[in-house]
Structures are given as C-alpha cells and as structure tokens.
Amino acid sequence: MTYVSNSLLILIGVMSLTFCLGVFAAYFVSFYEFPGVNFFKWALILSFAVPAYIYAYSLTAFFENYGSLHSLLSFLFGEQNYNPYIPKFDGLVGAILSMSFSLFGYVYVLTRASFYHQSHNLIEVSKNLGYSARESFLKIILPSARPAIVAGLALVAMECLADFGTVSFFGISTLTTGIYNSWISFDDLNTANQLSFILLIFIFVLFFVENHSRGDAKYHQPSQGFRQIPRIELTKNKGRLVSLFLSILFFLSFLFPFLQMSYWTIKFPKYFEQIDILALNLNTLTLVILASIALIGFSFLINFGNRISKSKLLDQLSLFSISGYAMPGIILAIAFMTFVSWTSDTLETFGIFGIKSVFIGSVLGLIFAYFIRFYSLAFNGIKSSYLKINQSIDESSYLLGYTKFRTFRKIHIPQLKDSIVLIGILIAIEIIKELPMTLILRPFNFDTFATKAHAYASQDLLEGAALPSLFLILWGGLLIFLTSKHILSEK
Amino acid sequence: MKFIVASLLFLSAMLGNVFANEVNVFTSRHYESDIELYKKFTEQTGIKVNVISGEDGALQKRIKEEDKDSKADLYITADAGKLGTFEAEGLFQTGASSNLIKSVVPEQLRTEYWVGIAKRARVIFYDPSRTTPNPNLSYEDLSYPEFKGKIVIRQSNSVYNQSLVASLIENDGLEETKIWVKEFVKNFARPAKGNDRSQILAVAAGEADYAIANTYYIALMLSGEKGSEQEVAARKVKILFPNQKGRGTHMNISGAGILKHAPNKDNAVKLLEFLVTPEAQKHIVNNTFEYPIIDGVEPSPLISQFGLDFKQDLETNVSTFAKRQAEALRIMTEAGWN
C-alpha cells in the first residue's frame, strides 16, 4: 500500500505548496503596487513551460554529489569536498518540489483571475469594517476566491496523480506507476484493477470538485460598480520584500531549470552534433498542428451542435467525453493499445484487417491518443467562449435568413477567432510537454523533445537531455509569452 | 477534411517503409552509440535499421498487443531476466543463435531464443583512502553486521538488483537468500535511491564506504563525458570484484532476440551476427564500456585498468534470472528494500 501512501503524500505536499505559492503570488500582483509587479504578473506563468520531469532532471543535476552546485562552490571557494553539506532533493521531496514549481501556475492563474474580477466594493466593505490588510485577506478576499482556488488545486491534483515522468525518474511507487507495473511488468491484473479503482475514486472526486467549483466560479460582475481595483502602494521595505519573494519564486520555477539546462547545453556541445534538432522540431510541429486541428475542429462541431440542438443528453455525453484529462497519459496509452488490439481482432473476424498498424505506432494513433487526453481542454475552452456569444445574436442571424451553417461560419467563427488561437496554443504547450503516450505509441525513428530528453535521462546522460529539454522550455516559453495576455485575463 | 488528408498522407509515408530492405528494432537500451553502430551496419549491408526505444514493460506490452501485425523484428534489452521473460511469454522465435553466433558467443550467454551482445559486471566500489576491504569479499558477506550503515545500492525495482538477488537465490537457495536480504538491508547507509552512478558518487563523496553498481558507470565518469568534476570523483574510487574465491562476480548481459512475428527475420539475424563481430564489439566496449561477449576483443582501457583476470560467474546460467526475478523482488520488498 505504499502506492496509496506515496500518492497521498505527493498530493498533500504539492497541493499545500502550490496553494501557498499560487495564492500569495496572485494576491500580491492583484492588490499591491511594488517594483516589478507588471513583470511578475506574466513572468510567473512561464513555469508552465517546464514539465515536472525536466524540473526533476534539473534538481538532480544541480544538487547531486559532484553536481552543478558542487562545481559552483568549487569555482567560488576553491576545491574541497562540499558534498556532505549539499542538501539532496530527490525521492519524495524532489518529486514534490518538481511538481509544485511546475504546477503552481494553475492556482496562480485561476486565483488571480478571480481576484481581478473581485468587486471593488468588497474591498471597500472590508475597509469600512476596519479590517487590517491581513484580516481582509483572510476574511473577505480568500473566501470569495475559494471556488477558483479549489478549481486550481483540483487541476494540480489531477496532474499529480497522472504524473509518470517525475515519479519514475525518482523511483517512487505511486498509484499510476503501480498500475503500470502490475499491469505490464507482472501481468497482475488483480492488483492493477484494485489500484485503478482507488485511482478512479481519487479522480472522480477531483473531477467533481473541479467541475462544481468551476460552476461556482462564474464571475458575477455587477452591472455597475465594477472597476479594476486600484492597487495599494506598499511601503518601500514591504515592496522590496514582496519583490524578493516573487523574484525567488520566478527564479525557482523557471530560471533555475532553464539555466541548468542552458549551462549543460553549453558545457557539453557534442550533443549538438548527436541530436537532430531539426527533426525534433519538425516532429513536434507535425503533432501539434494535426492534434490542434483535430481537437479544435471537433470541439467546435460538438459545441455548435449543443448550441443549436440544446439537447440535455448531448450535454451529458460531452461532459463524459471530457473526463480523459483526468486519466494518466501512460494508462490511457496502454488502454488505447488494448482497445485498438481488441477492436482489430474483432474486426478481423469480419474480414477487416490491418487496423492495428493504422493506430499503433503511427502519427494518426498518436493524434487519437492526444485527442482523448486533451479533448476537455479544447472543448471547455470553446464552450466558455461560446457562452459569451449571446443566443439572441443567433436568432437575429436566423431572422436575416442565414442558415445555421452560415451563422456558424459568418458569426461564430469570427467572434471566436481569438479564443481559437489561445486554445490552439494551450494544446501546443501540452503536446510539446507530453511524454508517456508519445513514448509508447510513436512510429519508428520518431522522436520529440520530450522523448529524446527521456532517452538520454534513462541512460544516465542528463547532459544529453539538456539540449532537447532546453528547446522544449524555449518553445513552451515562447508560446506562453505570446498568449500571456489571454491566459491572464480570460480564464 | 484537411486533417484526414494530412493523416492519410502521413500514413502512406509510413507504410512506404514497410517494403524496404530493413530491420525494425525495439530497444530499451537507449544508447546513442547503438544508433551509430546500426548506421555502420546499414553502410555495410544496405539494410536500414528502424528504431523505437522505450521502457521494457511498455515495449513488451506494445509487442503483445500488436501481435501478428507487429513490425518489430528484434528486441534488444540490457538484462538477461527481461530476455528470459520474453522467451517465457512466447514473444521470441527460435533461430537467434545462428551457427556463426554459436561459434563465438559462450553457451551460457545465449539460448535458442536470444543472444548476449555484451556482458556487464555488478561489482563493489570503495574509496581506498578510507577503506581497505578484504579482497575475497563476496556478495554474501555484505550482510554481516560489520558493514552496518556502510553500503549504498539502488532500489529493488532495478532489474540489475533483481537479477543479482536472483543469482543469489539460484546459488544459495531461497531461504538462505531471504535471511541475507534481511540482514543486508540493515547495512544500508541511506534508503535505496538514485541510479548506479549516484551510488558510486556517494562513495566518492564519503556518504558511504561501499557501493554496488555496474562497472561501466565508472568508465562513463572517467571518460569525462559527465564533466571534469565527476571524472575527478571517479578517480577516487576503486573496484572490488566479489566472490573471487567462489563462483565469481555476478555477470549480466545486454542481449537481443528475434520476435515471433518478425517480418524481416533474415535481416534480424544479419544484424545479430553483425553485433557480435569484432568491429561491432569494439564499438560497444568503447562506447557503453560493457565487457565484450566474444573472445579477442579487449574492454575499453577505462575498464581494463581495474583488472581483466577476475573470475566471472559464468556458471550461473543467466537464463535462470528470469525465473527467479519475481521471487527476488518479493523478498527484497518484504525486507524493506524500497
């Protein structure tokens, strides 16, 4: 039962850390004026570009015996054995730190959005009540942002449970690795089923909580009286302190892994020759483009269908179809293979052959798997933007004699253009970071940044993993930078 | 629509490969140097080598699910136990040991289903400036209380450890080994963690006196590929080959087998035969720093400096590892070896 206890420890650790980091960061950038506030506002979401497993590589690289920190200390203070004094961040602690810094962004973004929309009146009320800053934070601000915080934490928790790269790198048995091992390595379906059942309960609870909170989190913007809260100027010292806290957070969540990977890329230039960077870029790009088209296209269709038919059943069905996001990628990939294999065998009795080679070990199969995993991202994204288009617009369009399809083409698509780009980019970031499904389902001679980094990491050459990891971070960072405005304002 | 067209285009591009002169390799040996080796093979024979690398379990699952539609010809992995498991699951076909292979690869290191392509020794590392171990030390001795708090080793989920303990069960019996594991775990300097190299580094850093790890990791560090600091650290450490008075040091193999539904069996045999040629063996020993599987090729100088005339345990048939691994893992976890 170490599986369950490890998963629980990781959940508790990561959720507490992401709660503290995310909520405080959001609180400061939303309500206070201090040096660098506009920079931190978006810089903190760059952490989305660093997947937890690359964070884990960086932690190990830096803190291991004779690692980068040892080199740094030797460089600064002369050769000596500093190893006994260097803390080792591996195992459970390493996993918790890696996941926390790469996931706190969820809590930060959602909480900040909620703070942003918080009515000015609320703050005024607390002032009138004579609350101190601390009291108003604890008694007014925090409770009113609760749904957003809970939704953020639920997302964090789902990602934690789904993680495979980080925990297998640190050798921790969790529910997900337990299911994987008992299913695959030991062919022990009994244990696999039991663990899956526990995992499903976890996921179900989180899924419910997240959906529920998201419902609550609809921002009730008062028709009047809403204006952005003027930020409170902090005293010089307090302002510096807050800046320092956020600088550290920015450093730890983004700069640290980025710098570690850059350092190694420069220190071990031979990997530039060994790794076909162009192919990695092309492969990743292919996957991103195909998956985005499939995901966005289909989500559009379903959302449009829901809108014009207003069928309850369809609504329920689409809710069911989005649960893929809560499923760990590694388990999904294996289930996918098993399913394809079963379907294929069944079809063969009807004389249809070759289904397996079409879906396992092909780009098409990968796209399908991504589709199942990331459909909720696309679906929910389009849905929330669709809700912003008033039904009466559709009705006016029909009155003008537009057909439903024409309404879709001429009215909906132009209005949703911005959010399509945003969702496309969010999908891209997820796919660039995706590891376990790509690893299992890919075709021959096909690598992405993530699989290449993993290949080097598994042969104990993290130095070689640095270059693909760096590219992965850079691409993710660039995409986040381009969409930061949307991520920060819309959600 | 665009999506469908694009995917079809892709699909046809993929399928275009099927009829080429090629061999398809599934490998859990992720070495980049293996890819270079395959390139040499292609240059010599014109046979293209297609590769998918990944974790053993996942690759095994994929091969099983693909079943007769699988395009995989050759499976390569770095543990005899895994090869044995594949054999037991009926995933391999016979014919891996061609006559040429039989003439160069020792009998204990191959079956009809798979062939060793390199040897690996699991040894004890120590820092001679702090410790002077008895040169006749055995794995069995490491359970004695005098080693309390002095040993580092990686986790029980490592197949290298499972195969080591499997070989102990094979030689000393299950009950004996059960007691051994229980006592051995008490001697850990820290909870089992990290990879083999980090065990060696722990000895260099003074965190422990003895580390159990495979030899090639130290060569990797000595080669400078891990940076100058690790090279310096590795120089502090020496190797002790255990069980020299008895059956010899535990040897495992990297090996390969031909999959049951291999569409290019002939090419797979050609690749296997190529892998045990002196040319390929030289490439392997100088890149992955394993021991050669054939006579007449010297290990890398970085490895041979630790001694070449040590006694290797070639009596314990590596094919027994697969049978004992599950038992090994069970007694390790029961003893609290995480």
Describe the structure.
The complex is a heterodimer of chains A (491) and B (338). Chain A is globular, with a radius of gyration of 24 Å. Residues 219-225 of chain A have low confidence and may be disordered. Chain A has two domains: 1-267, MetI-like (MetI-like fold); 274-491, MetI-like (MetI-like fold, Orthogonal Bundle), CATH 1.10.3720.10. Chain A has a two-stranded parallel sheet. In chain A, α12 runs antiparallel to α23 (462-490) and α22 (449-458) packs antiparallel against α23 (462-490). Helices cover 78% and strands 1% of the residues of chain A. Chain A has 491 residues and is mostly helical. Chain A starts with a helix and ends with a helix. Chain A contains 23 helices and two strands. Chain B contains 14 helices and ten strands. Chain B has two domains: 2-119 and 252-300, 3-Layer(aba) Sandwich (D-Maltodextrin-Binding Protein, domain 2), CATH 3.40.190.10; 121-250 and 313-334, 3-Layer(aba) Sandwich (D-Maltodextrin-Binding Protein, domain 2). The model of chain B has no long low-confidence stretch (mean pLDDT 91). Chain B starts with a helix and ends with a helix. Chain B is of the alpha/beta class and 338 residues long. In chain B, 43% of the residues lie in helices and 16% in strands. In chain B, strands 1, 2, 3, 4, 5, 6, 7, 8, 9 and 10 form a ten-stranded mixed β-sheet that branches. Chain B is globular, with a radius of gyration of 21 Å. Classes of the chains: A mainly alpha (491), B alpha/beta (338). The interface between A and B is large, with 63 and 58 residues.
